[in-house]
Amino acid sequence: MEDFNIRPITESDNEAIAALIRKTLKAYALDIPGTAYFDEGLDHLSDVYSGKDCAYYVIDDKNGKLIGGVGFARLSFMKDTAELQKLYLDESMQGAGLGYEMLDFIETKMRKAGFKRSYLETHDNLKAAIHIYEKSAYTLIERPAEVVHSTMNRFYLKDL
Question: Domain tally for the chain?
Fold first, then answer.
């Protein structure tokens, strides 16, 4: 990510990353209940990811514009597993391979935090994301009973 700066989220990033996430979800007709669009903490991600066993990173382009973000948090219902959360990229950057780099980056952070598996939830509408996950060795699994985002309909797991 030589033309980009990836760094931990700060309070000053909250508004921009929330707007990017909502814009992306709306573009894929996922601005509906049961998605991250309505997550209680979406406007305060720097607070949400300030605890133990979680982290969120934002990506700036060479001009300092926030163009993406990705995070993880301990998954309570699977042992030694982190949930990959809120991987979003500005539409102007999609298709350039940055999604793969973001995924590799966050998986490295998960490993360093001691997690052995990565879990994620997505939706059929997010075809590009599904392509990245499947090419990155994520395996489709049955819907766990504990799922919070009720609209999500695809669930993946990967050994780290």
Answer: 1
Residue 3, judged by CB atoms within 10 A of its CB (0-12, 13-18, 19+), counts as exposed
Q: Which CATH number goes with the domain that contains 134?
A: 3.40.630.30
Q: Which residues contact 23 (CB under 8 A, 6 or more apart)?
A: none
CA-nearest of 6, 127, 19, 113 to 69 is: 6
Domain residue limits at 127: 5-159
97: left (phi over 0), alpha (psi -120 to 50) or beta: left
Task: Write out pLDDT tens, residues 101-112.
Answer: 999 999 999 999
Where does residue 109 rank: exposed (0-12), middle (13-18), buried (19+ CB within 10 A)? Answer: middle
> What span, in angstroms and rounded, lies between the C-alpha atoms of 12 and 24?
20
Q: At 8, phi and psi to the nearest 5?
A: -60, 145
Helix (H) or strand (E) holding 109: helix 98-112
Length of the chain: 160
Return d(Cα 150, Cα 119) in angstroms, integer.
16
Q: In the numeric block, which tokens belong to residue 107?
A: 């998986």
pLDDT tens, residue by residue, 42-99:
999 999 999 899 999 999 998 899 999 999 999 999 999 999 999 999 988 877 788 8
Q: How far apart are CA 31 and CA 29, in angstroms?
A: 6
